[in-house]
């Protein structure tokens, strides 16, 4: 790598989208951000006239957003479109200033406990994990393959959503099922959103003026997907997502915790297929299943209008959150801070207020006026005297991936 190579391109390849950011690690700036969505859609009228869309914002070059619509057939075409947009601003992939590409990879199993430079063997290992992450790893792999084909000489790094959780003790990670069956099929709690839990728990310690090793934090990552983690002295000791991201909190479209026998019942009594049950629990449950909306803004608006279904969905969401705060307080023994993050956690003051309401005995209190403040900065929303700090800490998974990537290629 050349001494002047200080840029990192972060790629988050989903099944039908690629999100990306180009960061300059020396200057601490973001040079471009963008999103290619609806990849593979582009055959109107069969698709209702919808087609792929590419939104690109060259922050370094004045920040004027560019939006293009038109069929983008696959991830290879998407990455080529990204490369072309970056090149238009003199930030192309061939630039000697590009130090590395950091890929978000959802499932790293037990093998990947840290960011890893990608070679053929690593790629094969990520492929071996497809059976435990069929909805996520294939798209990540396609993104990696395409990016390697575009810049075969450039270091490419995989940053795993599961890595931060690999410190969980066996008693938290194992399900209480037959050990041989579990091991044969690699069934255990892996946890996800790890880059966010890592970043937010560290930032929370910083906000308290402490080293991460000195504090115990409960992180509540509440986006469309949602997960909680218990972080003791900088190490994850438990997290709510499991073998897949379906377990745990109530999410936008996922049920979270459910009696596993519900799935047998749906199969035997309702005659549903495995794929139908999978779709029901992952895509048609959670807030959307309960009230038809998964956007917390819309749910709050409906509650204000007296909508009972929206109210019940909100109450179920909050009840589950409280259960995890309680459970992780017990797991940690002593809690220094509870940190709210991601779309809902950062923006929805009523969720934060309701989640800690009635928990004063546990040292958790929210100050109404601090909670009402809107800001993009990490901040405390608990009064000075409260035993446990309650914080809002905006997450930044791209920055975390870029930092881990840059640190590894400079090591
Ligand atoms: P993901 O990355 O999982 O797609 P985000 O972390 O971006 O999700 O969170 C998206 C969710 O955040 C939306 O579905 C919505 O419920 C919630 N959200 C975003 N902005 C607000 C807001 N101003 N008030 C309340 N909720 C919000």
TrEMBL record:
InterPro entries documented for this protein: Ac/propionate_kinase (IPR004372), Aliphatic_acid_kin_short-chain (IPR000890), Aliphatic_acid_kinase_CS (IPR023865), ATPase_NBD (IPR043129)
Entry cofactors: Mg(2+); Mn(2+)
Catalytic activity: acetate + ATP = acetyl phosphate + ADP
Positions of substrate binding: 104
Species per Swiss-Prot/TrEMBL record: Streptomyces endophytica
Active site positions: 161 (proton donor/acceptor)
NCBIfam families cross-referenced by the UniProt entry: ackA
Assembly, per entry: Homodimer.
Enzyme Commission numbers on file: 2.7.2.1
Amino acids binding ATP: 19, 221-225, 295-297, 343-347
Pathway it works in: Metabolic intermediate biosynthesis; acetyl-CoA biosynthesis; acetyl-CoA from acetate: step 1/2
Gene3D superfamilies to which the protein is assigned, alphabetical: 3.30.420.40
Major subcellular location class: cytoplasm
Descriptive protein name: Acetate kinase
Subcellular location per the Swiss-Prot or TrEMBL entry: Cytoplasm
Record: residues binding Mg(2+): 12, 397
Pfam family, one: Acetate_kinase
GO molecular function annotation: kinase activity
Main function: Catalyzes the formation of acetyl phosphate from acetate and ATP. Can also catalyze the reverse reaction.
Transmembrane intervals: none
Keywords: ATP-binding, Cytoplasm, Kinase, Magnesium, Metal-binding, Nucleotide-binding, Transferase
Cofactor note: Mg(2+). Can also accept Mn(2+).
Gene name in the database record: ackA
Keyword DNA-binding: no
Homology family: Belongs to the acetokinase family.
Site feature Transition state stabilizer, where: 193, 254
């Amino acid at each position: 790598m050349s001494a002047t190579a200080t840029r990192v391109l972060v790629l988050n390849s989903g099944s039908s989208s690629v999100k990306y950011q180009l960061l300059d690690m020396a200057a601490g700036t973001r040079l471009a951000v963008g999103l290619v969505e609806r990849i593979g859609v582009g055959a109107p009228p069969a698709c209702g006239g919808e087609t792929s869309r590419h939104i690109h914002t060259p922050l370094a070059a004045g920040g004027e957003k560019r939006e293009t619509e038109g069929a983008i057939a696959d991830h290879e075409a998407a990455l080529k479109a990204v490369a072309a947009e970056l090149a238009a601003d003199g930030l192309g992939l061939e630039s000697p200033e590009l130090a590395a590409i950091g890929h978000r990879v959802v499932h790293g199993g037990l093998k990947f406990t840290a960011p890893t430079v990608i070679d053929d063997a690593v790629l094969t290992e990520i492929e071996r994990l497809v059976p435990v992450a069929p909805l996520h790893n294939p798209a990540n792999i396609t993104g990696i393959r395409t990016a390697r084909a575009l810049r075969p000489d450039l270091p490419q790094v995989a940053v795993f959503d599961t890595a931060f959780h690999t410190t969980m003790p066996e008693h938290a990670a194992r399900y209480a099922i037959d050990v041989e069956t579990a091991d044969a099929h690699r069934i255990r709690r892996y946890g996800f959103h790890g880059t966010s839990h890592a970043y937010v728990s560290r930032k929370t310690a910083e906000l308290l003026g402490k080293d991460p090793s000195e504090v115990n934090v409960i992180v509540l990552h509440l986006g469309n997907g949602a997960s909680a983690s218990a972080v003791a002295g900088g190490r994850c000791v438990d997290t709510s997502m499991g073998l897949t991201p379906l377990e745990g909190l109530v999410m936008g479209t996922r049920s979270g915790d459910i009696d596993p026998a519900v799935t047998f019942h749906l199969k035997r009594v309702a005659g549903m297929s495995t794929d139908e049950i999978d779709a029901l629990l992952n895509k048609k449950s959670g807030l959307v299943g309960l009230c038809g909306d998964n956007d917390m803004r819309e749910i709050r608006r409906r509650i204000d209008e007296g909508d009972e279904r929206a109210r019940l969905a909100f109450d179920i969401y909050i009840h589950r959150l409280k259960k995890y705060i309680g459970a992780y307080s017990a797991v940690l023994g002593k809690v220094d801070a509870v940190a709210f993050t991601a779309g809902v956690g950062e923006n929805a003051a009523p969720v934060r207020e309701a989640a800690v309401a009635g928990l004063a005995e546990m040292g958790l209190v929210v100050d109404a006026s601090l909670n009402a403040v809107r800001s993009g900065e990490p901040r405390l929303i608990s009064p000075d005297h409260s035993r446990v700090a309650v914080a809002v800490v905006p997450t930044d998974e791209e920055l975390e991936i870029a930092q881990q990537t840059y640190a590894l290629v400079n090591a």
